[in-house]
């Protein structure tokens, strides 16, 4: 669309690296218990592939066959280092504090070593204390030397009775929480984990973490104190400790740092995105709202003397299309006053949200496909079209359709499936579903990358044949209403005009959605329903001639007289469609001065 600009911003560059992301216990995550993996390490300036541990550093449960005793556990409990986390650790500036490995992986189930734990907390310190401590096995040089000795000097970590630190040993959940709990006041909390007898030395630390709301344990009532903590678990806990919570909508529709091995459906995906992405934010009661160059946080609404409403984030009213929280608003270019409802802008019909627009009342269920999509980072400006389809699966529900795409590769998908009961999300808006791709396109701009795909569940009055050309395909009236409501929601969210709500057929000439391809009047009725009967739009559209020469006939067929000739790239307006064949002589369209073959145009 004319007002939209493609973002050219570079990907966010992480400035801090890390392996041991602190905090997050099982109840916050996957209850599985992956087997221990070899420890990993990084150089201070660059992420590296994990080094293989020396034989005497092979990770094991602390104290197992260890005549020197257990780390941390034989020490008397450390006094708390401060009253609250923000006294020593950075909680206000939300820079990235984790990064991945070369190749784009994060290894969320990988374990964290003691050295990496020191690195993580060290990277979050507001001020670095003087180094006064050291260990026999922590040389003055090496990527973790300063970090380990600094944290030991602060009193946050300790070593073994024999004077060693054992930097490459994996750290357990109890040990990790024991270190974390020292960065806040100790609290007496109710803790009923059935297995804490295995690590009674850490009860005070764990109960403190529970009282602060940092951890909750597993669903079966265990804490698994001696299990090695995973990178994903550590991130979830640390985010809770730092009071960092990913903006749900930013994760859905904005550019966040991602990793090849952390799927959008992974339990800790939001937490990992929060920890890996530099972002400005605004605190809310429910968490935080991320602020982007093309998105405002909703805190600068102003009521004018004449009763109008504008938005002044920096003292000057915004004008034109602007993205505030989850919607695309429009402000009068001259006055800056908010425009709402159905408006014609640059010749197209837009549905403009009210101030503080709430999401549509449809229940939005979710069953995301794990394989049938391309990962994307689409924001408000990348989504220009809404493409409507039909499932061609007689009587199947939206939930059933989502389930059929979940794990099995099908080479197709859509963002949403709709039936009489509501909406199911199959692919996140920011990602690219496979719904309107084609070898040959009959639309100049609508593609998978620029549109949101909506599949309408359908019925057929006769099941004798299932040809797409059959005239008895139909949608339940409630499905039509739900789809129209979803389309309106997407229009307000991304600033899509009604003219950019298209059929799959408009893009590829596939007979989809069959009820709206076989009957252009039915498609016009659907658009009228989307427009809430307030919009004077008849479904006409502009198209470009694709053939060197095209004859215009006085009627829809070759038997009518020719009235004009068009040449390639001429622009016409289509007012009506007749016939069913997507190619050949069976499908005709009426333009300004006659009729031409449907196959010879590309919609603009």
Overview of this protein structure:
There is one protein chain. The strands form ten sheets. Strands 10-14-13-16-12-19 form a six-stranded mixed beta sheet. The chain has a three-stranded antiparallel beta sheet with strand order 5-6-7. A three-stranded antiparallel beta sheet has the order 23-20-27, with no helix packed on it. 19% of the residues lie in helices and 17% in strands. Helix 1 crosses helix 2 and helix 3 packs across helix 4. It is built from twelve helices and 27 strands. Strand 8 and strand 9 form a beta hairpin. The chain is of the alpha+beta class and 604 residues long. The protein is elongated and about 100 Å long.
Would you summarize the structure shown here?
With 604 residues, the protein is α+β, with helices and mostly antiparallel strands. It contains twelve helices and 27 strands. Helices cover 19% and strands 17% of the residues.
